[in-house]
Design goal:
The complex is a heterodimer of chains A (104) and B (231). Chain A has 104 residues and is an all-alpha fold. Chain A is 70% helix and 0% strand. Chain A is elongated. Chain B is mostly helical and 231 residues long. The mean pLDDT of chain B is 93. In chain B, strands 1-2 form a two-stranded antiparallel ribbon. Chain B is built from eight helices and two strands; from the N terminus they run ααββαααααα. The chains are: A mainly alpha (104), B mainly alpha (231).
Chain lengths: 104, 231
Amino acid sequence: MKKSHLEILVGVLVIVLLVVATLVIVPSGGDGEEGWGGADGGAAEMIDETGYIPWFNSIWAPPSGEIESLFFCIQTAIGAIIIGYFFGYWNASAKARRGKQEEE
Amino acid sequence: MHIMEGYLPIGWCIFWAVLSAPFVIYGIWKMTKMIQEDRRVLPLMAVCGAFVFVLSALKIPSVTGSCSHPTGTGLSAAFFGPFITSVLGTIVLLFQALLLAHGGLTTLGANVFSMAIAGPFIAWLVFVGLRKTGKVGIGLAVFITAAVANLVTYTVTSLQLALVFPVDGSILNAFIAFAGIFAITQIPLAIIEGIICGLVAKYIVRVKPEILKKLGIIQDEEIAKIQGEAV
Protein backbone atom coordinates (compact mmCIF):
# COMPACT_ATOMS: atom_id res chain seq x y z
CA MET A 1 0.00 0.00 0.00
CA LYS A 2 1.23 3.50 -0.78
CA LYS A 3 2.42 5.45 2.24
CA SER A 4 0.05 8.31 1.39
CA HIS A 5 -2.99 6.00 1.39
CA LEU A 6 -1.92 4.38 4.65
CA GLU A 7 -1.69 7.80 6.29
CA ILE A 8 -5.21 8.74 5.24
CA LEU A 9 -6.58 5.37 6.37
CA VAL A 10 -4.97 5.67 9.81
CA GLY A 11 -6.15 9.27 10.16
CA VAL A 12 -9.76 8.42 9.35
CA LEU A 13 -9.66 5.39 11.68
CA VAL A 14 -8.40 7.49 14.59
CA ILE A 15 -11.18 10.04 14.02
CA VAL A 16 -13.90 7.37 13.89
CA LEU A 17 -12.50 5.62 16.96
CA LEU A 18 -12.36 8.88 18.92
CA VAL A 19 -16.00 9.67 18.19
CA VAL A 20 -17.29 6.12 18.71
CA ALA A 21 -15.29 5.62 21.91
CA THR A 22 -16.63 8.93 23.24
CA LEU A 23 -20.22 7.95 22.55
CA VAL A 24 -19.81 4.51 24.12
CA ILE A 25 -17.66 5.31 27.16
CA VAL A 26 -18.70 8.79 28.23
CA PRO A 27 -22.02 9.16 30.03
CA SER A 28 -24.21 11.75 28.35
CA GLY A 29 -24.17 15.19 29.95
CA GLY A 30 -27.96 15.21 30.40
CA ASP A 31 -30.97 12.94 30.44
CA GLY A 32 -32.60 11.57 27.31
CA GLU A 33 -33.18 14.32 24.78
CA GLU A 34 -31.04 16.80 26.71
CA GLY A 35 -27.92 14.65 26.44
CA TRP A 36 -25.12 15.64 24.10
CA GLY A 37 -26.26 19.25 24.08
CA GLY A 38 -24.08 22.03 22.70
CA ALA A 39 -21.29 23.49 24.82
CA ASP A 40 -22.42 26.98 23.73
CA GLY A 41 -25.77 26.32 25.42
CA GLY A 42 -23.94 25.01 28.51
CA ALA A 43 -22.14 28.34 28.89
CA ALA A 44 -25.38 30.25 28.37
CA GLU A 45 -27.04 28.20 31.13
CA MET A 46 -24.21 29.01 33.49
CA ILE A 47 -24.68 32.71 32.73
CA ASP A 48 -28.45 32.47 33.18
CA GLU A 49 -27.84 31.12 36.70
CA THR A 50 -26.14 34.37 37.65
CA GLY A 51 -29.44 36.13 36.96
CA TYR A 52 -28.19 37.90 33.84
CA ILE A 53 -30.88 38.73 31.31
CA PRO A 54 -29.76 38.98 27.68
CA TRP A 55 -30.45 42.50 26.46
CA PHE A 56 -30.82 41.65 22.79
CA ASN A 57 -32.42 38.75 20.98
CA SER A 58 -31.50 37.31 17.60
CA ILE A 59 -33.31 39.26 14.89
CA TRP A 60 -34.20 35.94 13.27
CA ALA A 61 -33.91 32.42 14.60
CA PRO A 62 -34.71 29.18 12.78
CA PRO A 63 -38.31 28.34 13.80
CA SER A 64 -37.52 24.67 14.44
CA GLY A 65 -34.69 22.21 14.89
CA GLU A 66 -35.34 20.85 11.39
CA ILE A 67 -34.95 24.25 9.79
CA GLU A 68 -31.83 24.86 11.84
CA SER A 69 -30.35 21.61 10.54
CA LEU A 70 -31.33 22.69 7.02
CA PHE A 71 -29.12 25.76 7.33
CA PHE A 72 -26.30 23.75 8.88
CA CYS A 73 -26.51 21.39 5.90
CA ILE A 74 -26.42 24.31 3.49
CA GLN A 75 -23.36 25.66 5.26
CA THR A 76 -21.59 22.31 4.98
CA ALA A 77 -22.70 21.82 1.38
CA ILE A 78 -21.32 25.20 0.29
CA GLY A 79 -17.97 24.31 1.80
CA ALA A 80 -17.93 20.73 0.55
CA ILE A 81 -18.76 21.63 -3.05
CA ILE A 82 -15.93 24.18 -3.21
CA ILE A 83 -13.43 21.72 -1.72
CA GLY A 84 -14.57 18.87 -3.99
CA TYR A 85 -14.47 21.02 -7.12
CA PHE A 86 -10.91 22.26 -6.63
CA PHE A 87 -9.53 18.96 -5.31
CA GLY A 88 -10.89 17.18 -8.37
CA TYR A 89 -9.59 19.89 -10.70
CA TRP A 90 -6.11 19.89 -9.14
CA ASN A 91 -5.93 16.11 -9.07
CA ALA A 92 -6.87 15.80 -12.74
CA SER A 93 -4.42 18.49 -13.86
CA ALA A 94 -1.63 16.86 -11.83
CA LYS A 95 -2.43 13.53 -13.54
CA ALA A 96 -2.49 15.17 -16.98
CA ARG A 97 0.90 16.78 -16.29
CA ARG A 98 2.39 13.45 -15.23
CA GLY A 99 0.95 11.73 -18.31
CA LYS A 100 2.57 14.30 -20.60
CA GLN A 101 5.96 13.87 -18.96
CA GLU A 102 5.79 10.12 -19.46
CA GLU A 103 4.97 10.54 -23.17
CA GLU A 104 8.03 12.72 -23.62
CA MET B 1 -17.33 29.20 21.18
CA HIS B 2 -20.28 31.24 20.01
CA ILE B 3 -21.24 33.74 22.67
CA MET B 4 -25.00 33.95 22.16
CA GLU B 5 -26.83 37.07 21.08
CA GLY B 6 -27.27 39.56 23.93
CA TYR B 7 -25.06 37.66 26.39
CA LEU B 8 -22.41 40.38 26.58
CA PRO B 9 -23.11 43.84 28.02
CA ILE B 10 -23.08 46.56 25.37
CA GLY B 11 -19.76 48.03 26.58
CA TRP B 12 -17.97 44.75 25.98
CA CYS B 13 -19.69 44.30 22.60
CA ILE B 14 -18.27 47.63 21.48
CA PHE B 15 -14.86 46.89 23.02
CA TRP B 16 -14.43 43.59 21.12
CA ALA B 17 -15.85 45.01 17.90
CA VAL B 18 -13.41 47.94 17.98
CA LEU B 19 -10.54 45.58 18.76
CA SER B 20 -11.46 43.18 15.92
CA ALA B 21 -12.28 45.70 13.19
CA PRO B 22 -8.70 46.73 12.29
CA PHE B 23 -7.69 43.07 11.80
CA VAL B 24 -10.59 42.34 9.48
CA ILE B 25 -10.18 45.60 7.52
CA TYR B 26 -6.44 45.01 7.07
CA GLY B 27 -7.30 41.40 6.12
CA ILE B 28 -9.69 42.55 3.38
CA TRP B 29 -7.04 44.92 2.03
CA LYS B 30 -4.40 42.19 2.10
CA MET B 31 -6.73 39.69 0.46
CA THR B 32 -7.61 42.07 -2.38
CA LYS B 33 -3.95 42.91 -2.96
CA MET B 34 -2.91 39.26 -3.02
CA ILE B 35 -5.63 38.33 -5.51
CA GLN B 36 -4.80 41.28 -7.76
CA GLU B 37 -1.13 40.30 -7.81
CA ASP B 38 -1.76 36.68 -8.69
CA ARG B 39 -5.21 35.26 -9.32
CA ARG B 40 -3.87 31.72 -8.96
CA VAL B 41 -4.05 31.97 -5.14
CA LEU B 42 -7.82 32.36 -5.35
CA PRO B 43 -8.70 28.62 -5.52
CA LEU B 44 -6.54 27.81 -2.48
CA MET B 45 -8.07 30.73 -0.60
CA ALA B 46 -11.54 29.47 -1.49
CA VAL B 47 -10.66 25.96 -0.30
CA CYS B 48 -9.33 27.32 3.01
CA GLY B 49 -12.53 29.34 3.47
CA ALA B 50 -14.58 26.28 2.56
CA PHE B 51 -12.82 24.34 5.31
CA VAL B 52 -13.93 26.91 7.87
CA PHE B 53 -17.48 26.49 6.51
CA VAL B 54 -17.47 22.70 6.72
CA LEU B 55 -15.60 22.16 9.98
CA SER B 56 -17.43 24.85 11.94
CA ALA B 57 -20.76 23.24 10.99
CA LEU B 58 -19.86 19.80 12.33
CA LYS B 59 -21.00 19.26 15.89
CA ILE B 60 -19.01 16.42 17.37
CA PRO B 61 -19.66 14.67 20.70
CA SER B 62 -16.86 14.97 23.19
CA VAL B 63 -15.57 13.69 26.53
CA THR B 64 -17.64 16.08 28.64
CA GLY B 65 -20.93 14.61 27.40
CA SER B 66 -21.74 17.64 25.27
CA CYS B 67 -21.19 18.51 21.63
CA SER B 68 -19.02 21.22 20.21
CA HIS B 69 -17.55 22.08 16.85
CA PRO B 70 -14.06 22.59 15.42
CA THR B 71 -13.19 26.01 14.03
CA GLY B 72 -11.50 25.02 10.77
CA THR B 73 -9.30 28.11 10.80
CA GLY B 74 -5.98 26.27 11.15
CA LEU B 75 -5.47 25.51 7.46
CA SER B 76 -6.00 29.08 6.39
CA ALA B 77 -3.86 30.41 9.27
CA ALA B 78 -0.96 28.20 8.18
CA PHE B 79 -1.21 29.06 4.47
CA PHE B 80 -2.38 32.68 4.45
CA GLY B 81 -1.65 34.03 7.94
CA PRO B 82 -4.01 35.49 10.52
CA PHE B 83 -5.30 38.57 8.69
CA ILE B 84 -6.82 36.84 5.67
CA THR B 85 -8.10 34.12 8.02
CA SER B 86 -9.90 36.78 10.05
CA VAL B 87 -11.91 37.74 6.93
CA LEU B 88 -12.81 34.10 6.15
CA GLY B 89 -13.82 33.47 9.78
CA THR B 90 -15.94 36.62 9.89
CA ILE B 91 -17.91 35.49 6.82
CA VAL B 92 -18.76 32.19 8.53
CA LEU B 93 -19.67 33.86 11.83
CA LEU B 94 -21.97 36.29 10.01
CA PHE B 95 -23.67 33.41 8.19
CA GLN B 96 -24.25 31.61 11.50
CA ALA B 97 -25.39 34.74 13.35
CA LEU B 98 -27.93 35.70 10.68
CA LEU B 99 -29.29 32.32 9.54
CA LEU B 100 -28.71 29.98 12.47
CA ALA B 101 -29.02 32.24 15.54
CA HIS B 102 -25.63 30.83 16.59
CA GLY B 103 -23.65 33.67 18.00
CA GLY B 104 -25.13 37.06 17.25
CA LEU B 105 -24.69 40.48 15.73
CA THR B 106 -24.06 42.17 19.09
CA THR B 107 -21.51 39.52 20.08
CA LEU B 108 -19.99 39.31 16.58
CA GLY B 109 -16.96 41.37 17.59
CA ALA B 110 -16.16 39.07 20.52
CA ASN B 111 -16.71 35.91 18.48
CA VAL B 112 -14.61 37.24 15.59
CA PHE B 113 -11.85 38.07 18.06
CA SER B 114 -11.73 34.56 19.53
CA MET B 115 -12.32 32.40 16.44
CA ALA B 116 -11.04 34.51 13.57
CA ILE B 117 -8.23 36.52 15.20
CA ALA B 118 -6.76 35.19 18.47
CA GLY B 119 -6.83 31.49 17.51
CA PRO B 120 -5.41 31.89 13.99
CA PHE B 121 -2.85 34.49 15.13
CA ILE B 122 -1.25 32.30 17.80
CA ALA B 123 -1.56 29.22 15.57
CA TRP B 124 0.20 31.08 12.75
CA LEU B 125 3.08 32.04 15.08
CA VAL B 126 3.37 28.37 16.06
CA PHE B 127 3.32 27.29 12.40
CA VAL B 128 6.02 29.78 11.38
CA GLY B 129 8.12 28.81 14.40
CA LEU B 130 7.83 25.08 13.67
CA ARG B 131 8.68 25.50 9.99
CA LYS B 132 11.66 27.78 10.81
CA THR B 133 13.32 24.88 12.64
CA GLY B 134 13.33 23.02 9.32
CA LYS B 135 12.69 19.71 11.09
CA VAL B 136 8.89 19.62 11.19
CA GLY B 137 7.18 18.32 8.05
CA ILE B 138 4.20 20.18 6.64
CA GLY B 139 1.67 17.53 7.70
CA LEU B 140 2.71 17.56 11.36
CA ALA B 141 3.11 21.35 11.40
CA VAL B 142 -0.43 21.88 10.07
CA PHE B 143 -1.77 19.26 12.51
CA ILE B 144 -0.34 21.22 15.45
CA THR B 145 -1.39 24.57 13.95
CA ALA B 146 -5.02 23.50 13.56
CA ALA B 147 -5.18 22.03 17.06
CA VAL B 148 -3.66 25.18 18.56
CA ALA B 149 -6.08 27.45 16.65
CA ASN B 150 -8.97 25.39 18.00
CA LEU B 151 -7.82 25.35 21.64
CA VAL B 152 -6.79 29.01 21.75
CA THR B 153 -10.18 30.03 20.33
CA TYR B 154 -12.05 28.32 23.13
CA THR B 155 -9.65 29.52 25.81
CA VAL B 156 -10.22 33.09 24.64
CA THR B 157 -14.00 32.58 24.68
CA SER B 158 -13.76 31.33 28.28
CA LEU B 159 -11.72 34.41 29.17
CA GLN B 160 -14.17 36.75 27.43
CA LEU B 161 -17.06 35.30 29.43
CA ALA B 162 -15.09 35.17 32.70
CA LEU B 163 -14.26 38.89 32.43
CA VAL B 164 -17.98 39.69 32.32
CA PHE B 165 -19.38 37.05 34.66
CA PRO B 166 -16.99 36.50 37.59
CA VAL B 167 -17.90 33.64 39.94
CA ASP B 168 -17.97 34.83 43.60
CA GLY B 169 -16.21 37.98 42.46
CA SER B 170 -13.30 36.03 41.03
CA ILE B 171 -12.46 36.18 37.33
CA LEU B 172 -10.09 33.23 37.74
CA ASN B 173 -12.80 30.97 39.20
CA ALA B 174 -15.13 31.94 36.38
CA PHE B 175 -12.42 31.29 33.81
CA ILE B 176 -11.88 27.79 35.22
CA ALA B 177 -15.63 27.13 35.15
CA PHE B 178 -16.08 28.30 31.55
CA ALA B 179 -12.90 26.55 30.45
CA GLY B 180 -14.40 23.40 32.01
CA ILE B 181 -17.34 23.72 29.63
CA PHE B 182 -15.36 24.73 26.55
CA ALA B 183 -11.67 23.92 26.66
CA ILE B 184 -11.86 20.32 27.88
CA THR B 185 -14.63 19.53 25.40
CA GLN B 186 -12.32 20.86 22.72
CA ILE B 187 -9.30 18.62 23.30
CA PRO B 188 -10.52 15.59 21.28
CA LEU B 189 -12.02 17.95 18.68
CA ALA B 190 -8.67 19.70 18.34
CA ILE B 191 -7.07 16.34 17.59
CA ILE B 192 -9.74 15.48 15.01
CA GLU B 193 -9.40 18.88 13.37
CA GLY B 194 -5.63 18.56 13.37
CA ILE B 195 -5.74 15.17 11.62
CA ILE B 196 -8.10 16.45 8.91
CA CYS B 197 -6.10 19.61 8.25
CA GLY B 198 -2.75 17.80 8.31
CA LEU B 199 -3.92 15.20 5.76
CA VAL B 200 -5.47 17.88 3.57
CA ALA B 201 -2.29 19.96 3.63
CA LYS B 202 -0.26 16.97 2.41
CA TYR B 203 -2.85 16.22 -0.27
CA ILE B 204 -2.58 19.78 -1.56
CA VAL B 205 1.22 19.43 -1.67
CA ARG B 206 0.75 16.33 -3.81
CA VAL B 207 -1.64 17.77 -6.38
CA LYS B 208 -1.01 21.52 -6.39
CA PRO B 209 2.37 22.36 -4.83
CA GLU B 210 2.98 25.48 -6.99
CA ILE B 211 0.70 27.72 -4.95
CA LEU B 212 2.20 26.68 -1.63
CA LYS B 213 5.69 27.17 -3.03
CA LYS B 214 4.76 30.64 -4.15
CA LEU B 215 3.40 31.45 -0.69
CA GLY B 216 6.75 30.33 0.74
CA ILE B 217 5.19 27.51 2.75
CA ILE B 218 7.26 24.70 1.28
CA GLN B 219 10.45 24.09 -0.74
CA ASP B 220 11.17 21.78 -3.70
CA GLU B 221 12.96 19.19 -1.60
CA GLU B 222 9.99 18.51 0.69
CA ILE B 223 7.54 18.58 -2.24
CA ALA B 224 9.52 15.83 -3.96
CA LYS B 225 9.62 13.80 -0.74
CA ILE B 226 5.85 14.02 -0.18
CA GLN B 227 5.05 13.31 -3.81
CA GLY B 228 7.36 10.30 -3.63
CA GLU B 229 5.16 8.80 -0.90
CA ALA B 230 2.25 8.59 -3.33
CA VAL B 231 4.08 6.50 -5.93
